[in-house]
Amino acid sequence: MPLVETADVFVAAGIPKERVFVSGLCIEPALAERAEAAYGKRLERLAGAEPLCGAYFSSGAEPRRHVEMITTAALSTVSQGDRAILFARRAGRLAEAVKRTFDEVRQGLDIVVDPLDIPARMHDAALCLYDDRRELNEFTARLFDRFDYYVAPSHERTCWALGLGLPTFIVEPPIGSFAPLNRDYLLEQQVARSVSDMEVAARFGPELRRARESGGLTAMAQACWGRYEIRGFDNIAGLLRVGGSEH
């Protein structure tokens, strides 16, 4: 289980406590290694006046409602003078919606097709296209230090909100078995806020600016920083090594 709170649910349901392993949050090792340095720089930017940079993700299924809200929210922030990096499956719904919408309003958009070919300086908006999870992970690892917040469904990168000090905006509605539970936990921990409908998405840029000026974004970043173990992958690997050596 990633968290003690999750493990407690299973123990309460009758699973023997000694059979429950708490791994910690399973955050990509490349991000976990840089988490503290990135967090410090992020707090500096949130307290400053330079444009913020948001990361925007959909789920693999790319439901149309999520696609519309993500595209609208990203355009709203860019229109306010901030920056947006969108990650989309090549030739998927989100990629096509972003290209079409940004073209209609003549908003500059860098289209990046290779994680090894990311421009040092990009337009206020960039669209990173990937074919598989490996490419997506490489894109995020190379761009992570630029992220000031992210926008995504509640079943995508929930661990980032809890373990990396990265303010999160949840695209509604939650879709899938665990998404509603993830959503509720993030909101309860005050690391996330809801983007509940298209009206909220359309005014996302101004609302984000108000949250920054009021200190709300900084509070979201600080809410869970340092509370959870973030090297779950390493801990699981260690458990498997120990288990394998016993047989």
Q: How do the helices and strands follow one another from N- to C-terminus?
A: HHHEHEHEEHEHEHEHHHH
CATH topology of the largest domain: Rossmann fold
Strand content: 5-15%
The total count of helices amounts to: 12
Overall domain count: 2
List keywords for this structure.
single chain, Rossmann fold
Description:
By secondary structure, the protein is an alpha/beta fold. It is built from twelve helices and seven strands. It folds into two domains: 1-24 and 231-247, no CATH class; 34-225, Glycogen Phosphorylase B (Rossmann fold). The protein has helices spanning 4-12, 29-32, 35-47, 64-79, 93-104, 133-143, 158-163, 179-188, 198-202, 204-214, 216-222, 232-245; strands at 53-57, 83-89, 110-112, 125-130, 149-152, 168-171, 192-195. It has a seven-stranded parallel β-sheet, with helices on both faces. Helix 4 (64-79) packs parallel to helix 5 and helix 4 packs across helix 10. The mean pLDDT is 92.
Question: What's the short version?
Answer:
48% of the residues lie in helices and 13% in strands. By secondary structure, the protein is of the alpha/beta class.
Strand and helix map with partners:
Elements: H1 4-12, H2 29-32, H3 35-47, E1 53-57, H4 64-79, E2 83-89, H5 93-104, E3 110-112, E4 125-130, H6 133-143, E5 149-152, H7 158-163, E6 168-171, H8 179-188, E7 192-195, H9 198-202, H10 204-214, H11 216-222, H12 232-245
Parallel strand pairs: 1-2, 1-5, 2-4, 3-4, 5-6, 6-7
Helix pairs in contact: 4-5, 4-10
